[in-house]
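Progress report, Aim 2. The chain analyzed during this reporting quarter is listed below.
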Amino acid sequence: MRHISTYILFISLVLFSHNSIAQSNASQSISIDEKIGQMIMVGFHGFQLSDTSHVIRDITEYHTGGVILFDYHMPERSPNRNIDSPVQVTQLISELQGLSDKTLFVAVDQEGGRVARLKTDRGFPNHVSAQYLGEINHMDTTRYYAAKMAEELQMLGFNVNFAPVVDLNTNPQNPVIGRLERSFSYDSAIVTDHASIFLEEFNKNRILGVLKHFPGHGSAWNDSHLGMADVTDTWDQVELEPYKLLSQKDAPFAIMTAHVFNEHLDSDDPATLSRAVQHNLLREEIGFNGVLFSDDMQMEAIRSFYGLDTAVEKALLAGVDVLVFANNSVYDREIVPKLVQIIQGLISDGIITEERIHESYERIQRAKARFNINGN
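Predicted structure tokens for the chain:
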């Protein structure tokens, strides 16, 4: 029996090695431009593909790896954006996926409560807020709503949800977290328990859950959509607990960065652009090796303080895998070509290495494979 077990182990190791080599060879055959494209997620205007042209170009010519859908078009203060009805959204996502030879990340911010892009007045089910669930603190109730949300997202065709929020409600007057009831609780254990259930249900339905906003936005007094949020005097180490505890569980997830400034973590840059935060703290200390999404790079916290070139350079050096340009603060039809050109230039100048691009590409493809999102 010992010989048989040894033989089986040997065969398994050979097969694993063969598969790893095959995957590595396949990855090496992908052009650097394709890898760059996979690191971009873009937003666009239109209920159907015929309503827009740039997203078709972005995906087919620039290999854009992801899109994000919204219900409201902020630049024009209009409810006409991407989401009108369940049938329409399903068709739009199907058309988008048909454009790419690599399955796209198709993302949405569907947290529940006041942050829900899939609204009841457009035919979607109601989802309660994180605060509501945290206050009840009944795990079966949370699982009911988490399962309902995950099943709905899968049925529509989404494969990434920018949820659950794991910010602690340390400042109930926070205009973008506390006042919007986006946090489960001020207690890190309660936040972790409820977030864990959402991740489990997302995983069952092949939805990549994205914890946000690292390293913590709950204590801020202002909104990073409108300017820099400085948490130097309000942030606490306990805000890292959900990330640490969830990293020890079996439910994989991605993380979204926070555009918050904390002088104690980095005296120069906000978290999204900080290697000290995203690499040293998140990757090295906490041990996270999943996909790291930026928060929207067009928010005022970044756009008002950094030029596009500098913001992209710093985000990549920090360790961000997917640069999110939602096109819903400002609208730039040429943002994807601009990004590709900037990243190509950073590589040519030796500021960003091809190996750095390859690292992010590999993380993205592992996530797509793990969630059966047919990545290559």
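The longest strand covers residues 208-214. Residues 1-25 have pLDDT under 50 and may be disordered. These observations will guide the mutagenesis work planned for the next reporting period.
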